[in-house]
Amino acid sequence: MSSRRLTAAAGVGFKPQHFEAIREARPGIGFFEVHAENYLGAGGPPLMRLEALRSWYELSIHGVGLSIGGVERPDSAHLVRLRHLCDRFQPGSFSEHLAWSGHGGLYLNDLLPVPLTSESLNRVAAHVAEAQDRLGRSILIENPVTYLTFEESTIPEPAFLAELCRRTGCGLLLDVANIFVSATNLGVAAQDLLLQYPLGAVGEVHLAGHEASTDRLGHPVLIDTHGSAVPAEVWDLFEILLGARGPLPALIEWDNDVPDWPTLASEAETAGRSIGAAHAHRRQLLAMPMGSAGWKEAAT
Amino acid sequence: MRTLGHDPARFVAALLGADAPPPPELRGAAANGRFEIYRNNVAAGLVRALATRFPATERLVGGAFFAAMAEAFIRRHPPRSPLLMTYGEAFPVFLHGYAPAKDLPYLPDVARLEVARGQAYHAADADALPPAAFAAVSVEKIGDLRLRLHPSVIVLRSAHPVFAIWSAQQQAAPPLLVSPWRAEDTLVHRSGESVAVEPLAPGEAAFLLALQNGESLADAAVTAMEEAQGFSAEGALTRIVLSGLASGMLAG
């Protein structure tokens, strides 16, 4: 089973409208991420652009339609399509969500919440194992944004994901923006929530903007819109994560009201500077005798 | 007290039904307000997917009318595949029966044209036959030739001037300026990185459809001439060669 990894650098979600700018400038981006389901047509310009992009950059393929958190097994035909896509483009990472998006033959095009119980853990672990087996690679599972919880849920989401990673060998795609949004919506401290996740399993980070709104009952709620710049609170969480884990691949996710390429590139540069500092910090630690006074100071 | 278990079928029904109550398995009263976020995401995401695929249809009826029409379609025909690029193939048929749009009898055919554009965009790749390949065929054999048309080639027949209406929408002109009001056949195919939409001369649609059916050039020309006396096989073949509509020659 392939266990390729993305390099620890800043990546950007690819949008076709940026293709020409990328082709001309070949910016120093660590990797580009695409949604798998947008590239499952038989042919045409989307796949041609992806071929070109792959020849210049590392790719991350991010699935949104496998419904791995569902009650039903992942769709076999969809797994075949995803395997074909991964074989063709050899991405550094394939990821999906702790969520479901379809049931009974219908597809809802949204990431729907999963009750967190020992029963659902068994089921999701079986689905992840099946997906990894069929794709011939280990995958990353992303923490979803939380707006509500289920009566029957008994396992906190970080513990659920930790056990999922332990049982299946999958990694974690830690969406730091989702942690901030979920923590705010559930009324807990974001930093505390972040540190509960199995940070050793993180194989990629997502960074995005959100929007403040009110729910139908008039209560404030943050919505994960992926439609604006990464806010300061999310950058702060990212720094804490890098401090705890060292350098990681991190993606700027901007899917709605997509800005021009320079704006996205500048967000990626910001992420890249933090990742670069984490690399430098690690090199500094490696250069010092372990246990020396300087090492202790640098390591804490 | 026993907690109520998650029932995905009921959850889906609550997502798609505008007036359905939130699923009872959610924790706390606040969750009921939050459930609305998922319902809005599902509806807004699918309306956006349809608006992206049917821009001319949307311009013809306006944004608000289109959104209501799309929401009715989504409830009746929710997606059945995570490949949203294929979503909306049933939209034209749905529009035929959509009473609020019955004063726009051409609307379903405009939507059909937009379905075809999406299909052509994502169709399989194939190299077009170069003009030299046709030049190499001897004059007495050309009538027996059977062509494989490019996978992106779609012929659309309509009782309405659908090409003219669609073209007018590209400049946001009202369809009432379309003249004369007559049946129109349209060719949709991929050309380089974009999708070409072209009006077809009388008989050309029958000709191309016959070729797609595996008929020889001579048989297809007869079919076309039976339908339209002014049909020019030479003109149709020139279009096939110059627009790269054929991707292969079939044996026999």
Report on the structure:
The complex is a heterodimer of chains A (300) and B (252). Chain A is an alpha/beta fold. Chain A has one domain (10-299): Divalent-metal-dependent TIM barrel enzymes (TIM Barrel, Alpha-Beta Barrel). Chain A has ten helices and twelve strands. Chain A has an eight-stranded parallel barrel with strand order 1-2-3-4-7-8-9-12, surrounded by five helices. In chain A, a hairpin with a 2-residue loop joins strand 5 (100-103) and strand 6. The longest helix of chain A is centred in the last third of the chain and has 27 residues, at 261-287. Chain A is globular, with a radius of gyration of 19 Å. Chain A starts with 9 loop residues before the first strand and ends with a helix. With 252 residues, chain B is mainly α. Chain B is elongated, with a radius of gyration of 23 Å. At the A-B interface, helix 2, strand 5 and strand 6 of A face helix 1 and helix 2 of B.
Labels describing this entry:
heterodimer; A: 300 residues; alpha/beta; TIM Barrel; eight-stranded parallel beta barrel; two-stranded antiparallel sheet; 10 helices; 43% helix; globular; B: 252 residues; mainly alpha; Outer Surface Protein A, domain 3; 2 domains; three-stranded antiparallel sheet; 11 helices; 5 strands
Structure summarized in a few sentences:
With 300 residues, chain A is an alpha/beta fold. Chain A contains 10 helices and 12 strands.
Number of helices of chain A: 10
Task: State the strand order across the main sheet of chain A.
Answer: 1-2-3-4-7-8-9-12
In total, the number of strands of chain B is: 5
Question: What is the fold named in CATH at topology level of chain A?
Answer: TIM Barrel
Q: Output the helix-strand order of chain A.
A: EHEHEHEEEHEHEHHEEEHEHH
